[in-house]
Write a structure and sequence with these properties.
Layout (H helix, E strand, L loop, with lengths): L13 E5 L3 H10 L5 E5 L5 H8 L4 E3 L11 E6 L4 H13 L3 E4 L12 E5 L2 E5 L6 H14 L4 H15 L6 H40 L6 E6 L10 H9 L2 E5 L4 H4 L7 E5 L10 H13 L3 E6 L6 H9 L3 E5 L21
Parallel strand pairs: 1-2, 1-4, 2-3, 4-5, 8-11, 8-12, 9-10, 9-11
Antiparallel strand pairs: 6-7
Length: about 350
């Protein structure tokens, strides 16, 4: 990853665009979605630049940018379609401490502008390191088709409701509240009665969650097959993404571990050629401890074998558990061994 994705706060910050033609317009369309103070410099402005100036959306000056113009600027774009003028303008920006971008010049740019799917305040940025803009546009199209228009409205309602949701203890119970709101209750309420119905239902959902009993912890024993994350079952991927604790042996492939939440506790166990080795009893105790605290635990094993000693220990400790088999190299799933405890999950 050459370009690290971040979201910069441009509210009331100065953004300089050197250039006023078609090349600049493409950048201005995105910048106008922000509350930045946008200054555009250059001769022969496009009609859109003039329209946006008359509407008070940007400030346009019919001259080249100078050193005073870029003082306190957050971003400076070189969009003149003239390499010499783009370099002059962005050199001024660098000297003033601004981040600079030259259109269609990846090597001399400090940042790139991604393709954006806007469901404000939900924003999805798509970048290809400048290698395949057409691919970024295709991904943008697919995301726009899959993300409903009301997603932004639900996010705004949720954002305003966050102080009330802080009554729910941090952790899984609060995450489950937000999952139910965004993916089930919120969309259903919106379909029935729009924003008013959503505001009513989120209050009801909060009361239901506050009155509910604490969720019991459980363990999922997952085989990772040959180590290719694309061969994991959808169920395994979802469980790993939602896990509070991930316990894995050292043979589990790193790309699979990358599927875990960043906030999850990740513990490596198992035997190694050098260093202390985990005993099976220690692994059993670790799973039981975290599940006893109400955590959802995922135990990852390389290959397809589920350790009988682990299922026995969980059963004896009265911990609910289930198994998800790995996928063999021939692409066939191996059915899990039936246990009485699986029916509890």
């Amino acid at each position: 990853m050459r370009h690290f994705p971040i979201f910069m706060n441009l509210d009331h910050r100065r953004v300089i665009v050197s250039g006023a033609g078609a090349c600049a317009v493409a950048k201005l369309r995105l910048l106008l979605k922000t509350d930045a103070h946008i200054l555009v410099f250059g001769a022969n402005p496009s009609n859109l630049v003039l329209q946006w100036t008359q509407a008070g959306k940007i400030s346009y000056l019919n001259r080249t940018v100078n050193a005073k113009d870029v003082i306190d600027a957050a971003l400076v774009y070189g969009a003149n379609e003239d390499a010499t003028e783009d370099k002059r303008a962005t050199d001024l920006g660098r000297a003033a401490g601004a981040l600079v971008n030259i259109v269609d010049n990846l090597e001399d740019s400090q940042f790139i502008t991604p393709a954006i799917v806007d469901r404000s305040p939900v924003t999805v940025a798509i970048g290809t390191e400048g290698a395949a803009p057409v691919l970024a546009r295709k991904i943008k199209q697919q995301l726009e088709e899959s993300l409903p228009e009301q997603l932004g409205a639900l996010a705004r309602i949720g954002q305003a409701f966050r102080p009330m949701a802080d009554k729910i203890p941090m952790g899984r119970k609060r995450r489950d509240f937000w999952s139910k709101f965004y993916f089930k209750r919120g969309p259903l309420a919106w379909a029935k009665g729009g924003e008013a119905a959503v505001n009513q239902d989120i209050d009801n959902l909060l009361n239901e969650v506050l009155a509910s009993d604490p969720e019991q912890g459980r363990v999922w024993l997952i085989g990772t097959g040959p180590g290719d994350p694309e061969l994991l079952t959808l169920k395994a991927r979802n469980l790993l993404h939602e896990a509070d604790v991930v316990i894995h042996d050292h043979l589990v492939a790193k790309p699979i571990l990358e599927l875990a939440r960043r906030e999850a506790i990740v513990v490596e166990t198992g035997k190694k050629t050098f260093g202390a080795a985990w005993q099976q009893s220690q692994i059993n105790a670790l799973m039981i401890k975290h599940a006893g605290r109400g955590h959802h635990v995922v135990r990852l094993k390389s290959g397809n074998t589920i350790e009988p000693a682990e299922t026995a220990a969980l059963g004896n400790a009265d911990i609910a558990f289930g198994t998800v088999p790995g996928i063999a190299d021939n692409g066939q799933s191996r059915a899990p061994r039936k246990t009485q405890k699986m029916e509890q999950v």
